Amino acid sequence: MAANVKTSRKASRYAVPVVVVGVAVATVGLIPAFANASGPDLPKVTAQQLIEKIAASDTQQLSGTAKISTDLGLPKLATGLLGGGGVAGGSANPEDKLTQLATGTHTFKVAADGPDRQRITFLDGKDEYSLIHNGDEVWGYDSKSNEVFHDKEAGAKAGQKGKEHKTADRLGTSPAQLAEEALKAAGPTTDVSVGDTAQVAGRDAYQLVLKPKASGSTIGSVQIAVDAKNGVPLRVQVLSSQGGKPILDAGFSKVDFAKPAADTFTFTPPKGAKVQEGSDASHGDKAQRRMDSLPIPGLNGLTGGGAKGETTVLGEGWGAVARIDSGTGKGLKDFEGKANEKGAPKEAKQLLDSLGDKVNGKFGSGRIFSTRVVNALITDDGKVYVGALTKDALVQAANAAK
Q: Which pTM value belongs to this model?
């Protein structure tokens, strides 16, 4: 693979998973691939026509129930660091909830009334977490901890941004927002076609299918089910090139495009709730703080722990690889020694045990940390190569970049 160096940034700017939809996608082919008769009998459309239908949709009001399931194949240690389990519990700050969506299945109710009013409520048994955007205010409420997050300034910014996201929720988990992120990443590395028609939430839908042109990606395809009448994305699925259940499956089970009741977007903090204003709330990521406490060359840079860490993006589209230099001058061998020292954090030894077998190449030697989506090659000299590529493809990318 020819190394196309696009940009260099601080390693702390790099984050991995649910955003894989946006990283994975690319160009709009004009090949007239048509929906077949396995689902509802709908008029034939080309991929270009279906994309234009999505872009032309002006639906700004809806309510419904949706589900997001994520199976990244993370080890138990990583799941714990991400705060596995339900979304409810802990801080009410929206930023602290994002990483918890990287694993498991979550059901939520969503409502939208134009760019200035959205609400999303995650249901976790008897507990729930709600995020409400109403005009210039944003409220977050965690029923388990009885904590409230409030940010007026963020609400004003959300209102401005909302004009570009007609039915988006503030956590970026709605099928419409995931589809938008996928299409925004358009480039020359993807084949786009129309797949089978389908029914989603009782509505007829076309399916837009995006696949990598080249081999080596861990992503087999991204499939976007689009409402045949109004062009609103109803479901997004990210499928693995290795088969099995979807990596990401986010879609409506019920949806109504009528105007939601006005009181849907009103919120008053419950009696006795602890209220944190946006300027006072902690914006730190618990998983990152815990990972940064481990003496892990390379991985500290990956999660933002290395102050000198630099990230260079190699390649593009589905084949993009982030090369991270920890800047520590220390490598995996140093970490292996420290992890086995008496008194070392148990998480360090657990993480070392979770790393894959040794690999060798022109880049040198190292180990590959694997998930269903993202693989990371951690070298003995302190570099990390990360991408949504298979192990073999990642080693080839590291060799080409040497």
A: 0.72
